[in-house]
Every structure is written in C-alpha cells, then in structure tokens.
C-alpha cells in the first residue's frame, strides 16, 4: 500500500510544466508571431497602394466629369475640393464625399494642373511617408503614370 501512495504523489507532481518548458513555448510563439507580422506588413503596404490607385482612378473620373460639365479643369487653388461640399452637392455628377479625398494614409490627394508630360492635370499621393520620391510603401502614386504600370 505504501508503494502505491508514493507513485500517486510522483504522478501528481509531474502534471505541471516547468519554468524552462513554459519559457520555451513563449519563445517559440514569439518567433512565429514575428515571422507572421513581417510577412503581413508587406501585404498591408501593397494593399494600401492598391487602395490609393483605386482612389486616384475614382478622382480622375470625377475631375474629367467636372471638365465636361464646367468646360474647364479645376483650378490649382481649389484643387480636388471642387468635387466635394461646399462646392458640389451629393446630386452633382462629379461629387465625392470628403473622406474620398483622403489617401489610405489619411492625407489629402494632391491635384496639379497642368500635369506632367502634357497631361491636363495630375492626381497624386506621396505614399506612406508623405514625402516626394521613395520606394516600396513610400513610393509616389500618380494618375500620370498609373495606367498599365505593373506593381513594383
């Protein structure tokens, strides 16, 4: 009977994990989380660039509609603001909501008239860093060079 009691006591104490085992699990989970985070951050950057391209395309269409209705391009002074309140109403064909004038990084899309290379205008975003130039997530996106351009 005594042997059975000692065996039961040893079995009960072995059910928990040691501190070394817990630390090993935490380190492994941390490495997995870091690997996933690095992989997803690049995907999020590409997704924001695609959203910016879509936003630029929408605004280009609205600026062209404005040109048809007003027989002139928006001025540099008003820029893309002419597409939103108070310059336009929701029933206006070229109207866009104020939040659609913001790029995926929360900055207002820029409007330049005339645009580069003979384009009548340009709509652009300076990317994640908000500064001209850059590569990857910081690359500029412009209506003047988006058509047919492959993702970098």
Keywords:
mainly alpha; three-stranded antiparallel sheet; elongated
Structure description:
- The protein is 42% helix and 6% strand.
- The protein is mainly α and 152 residues long.
- It has one domain (19-142): Glycoprotein, Type 4 Pilin (2-Layer Sandwich), CATH 3.30.700.
- The termini are far apart.
- Residues 148-152 have low confidence and may be disordered.
Helix/strand layout:
Elements: H1 2-13, H2 19-70, E1 110-112, E2 122-125, E3 141-142
Antiparallel strand pairs: 1-2, 2-3
Rg measurement, Å = 28 Å
As residue ranges, the low-confidence spans are 148-152
Mean pLDDT: 79
State the fourth-level CATH superfamily: Glycoprotein, Type 4 Pilin
The first-to-last residue Cα distance is 75 Å
* Tally of distinct domains: 1
**Shape estimate:** elongated
Strand order of the main beta sheet, please? 1-2-3
Helix/strand class:
mainly alpha
CATH architecture: 2-Layer Sandwich
Q: What is the helical fraction, as a range of percent?
A: 40-55%
What is the CATH third-level topology name? Glycoprotein, Type 4 Pilin
Following the backbone from N to C, one meets helices and strands in this order, namely HHEEE
The first-level CATH class name:
Alpha Beta
User: Number of helical segments?
Assistant: 2
Strand content: 5-15%
Strand tally = 3
Describe the biggest sheet? 3 strands, antiparallel
């Amino acid at each position: 009977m005594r042997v059975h009691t000692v065996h039961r006591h040893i079995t009960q104490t072995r059910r928990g994990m040691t501190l070394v085992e817990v630390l090993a699990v935490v380190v492994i989970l941390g490495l997995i989380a870091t690997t996933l985070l690095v992989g997803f951050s690049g995907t999020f950057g590409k997704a924001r660039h695609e959203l910016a391209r879509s936003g630029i395309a929408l605004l280009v269409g609205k600026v062209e509609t404005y040109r048809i209705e007003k027989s002139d391009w928006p001025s540099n002074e008003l820029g893309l603001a002419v597409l939103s309140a108070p310059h336009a109403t929701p029933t206006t064909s070229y109207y866009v909501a104020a939040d659609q004038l913001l790029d995926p990084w929360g900055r207002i899309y820029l409007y330049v008239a005339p645009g580069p290379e003979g384009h009548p205008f340009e709509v652009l975003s300076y990317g994640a860093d908000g500064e001209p130039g850059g590569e990857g997530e910081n690359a500029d996106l412009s209506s003047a060079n988006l058509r047919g351009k492959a993702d970098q």
